[in-house]
Amino acid sequence: MHLLFTVLVTFFAGMGAGLGTGFAGMSAAAVISPMLITFLHMDPYMAVGIALSSDVLASAVSAYTYHKNKNLDIKNGLIMMASVLTFTVVGSWVASKVPSATMGSFSVFMTFLLGVKFILRPVMTTKEAMQGVSAQKRAVQSVVCGVLIGFICGFIGAGGGMMMLLILTSVLGYELKTAVGTSVFIMTFTALTGAVSHFMIGGTPDWLVWVLCVVFTLLWARIAAVFANKAAPKTLNRATGVVLVVLGVVIMGFNLLT
User: Fold this and answer.
1) C-alpha angle with apex 128: 167 to 124, nearest 5 degrees?
2) Would you call 157 helix, strand, or coil by DSSP?
3) 125: helix, strand or coil
4) In what helix (H) or strand (E) does residue 181 lie, and over which residues does it extend?
5) Which region, left, alpha or beta, applies to residue 74 given φ > 0 means left and ψ of -120 to 50 means alpha?
6) pLDDT tens-digit series, residues 84-118
7) Where are the transmembrane segments (predicted)?
8) 132: which DSSP letter?
9) Which residues contact 173 (CB under 8 A, 6 or more apart)?
10) Most confident of 40-44, 88-92, 212-216, 237-241
11) CA dihedral (159, 216, 192, 226) positive or negative
């Protein structure tokens, strides 16, 4: 009975995380961690480690799918990733010097609001419009925005995928599919860095829960990414918005239970 319950919890956790990753480049940690803590009573630090490691393959397969459909900006993604990783460390160091009563629910609230935004004000930018920006200007924008995303994520400890999607679409003017593809590409490496550090510090995870989370998240991320790359822009905006709103509401519910 316990095994069946574990499989069910990890299945729904992986489904929510995979859909969020494949549609919107959302970090699996936002979904998997609260479910493992709430229903399997797992240590929060280990739950985050499992969630981050689930994010690695899910983001990688999503990035591959977006790249195959020519919806990934690798060059500027690498530039932004370097800034994000560097300033996540800086933000984390600054946060260690500040009283810890800061914005714990920032990521969840942002997920909900971003979902509403995609439903009410869809991103209809075209690739042609994206190409109107010079390569030099885009590179500078990627560095500056990577600094901002990294510092906020390091300071708050969450929200990387949502911050990237918001900035790529609203600030840098990316077309939605390219924004998500670039976001999951970056998240592959940020999640790998986080997962390795968590397991080096916290020790080995519960292997059954780890395998189930990785497999289910990977499966649903692949399904979501394939659908997203075939969908019309307006359909994708609405689907992404609905997924984010539902996940935001569900995660808020889990946070109230813990």
Assistant:
1) 50
2) coil
3) coil
4) helix 176-202
5) alpha
6) 888 877 876 776 665 544 444 556 777 788 888 88
7) 45-66, 78-95, 101-120, 140-167, 179-200, 207-227, 239-257
8) T
9) 125, 129, 130, 133
10) 212-216
11) negative
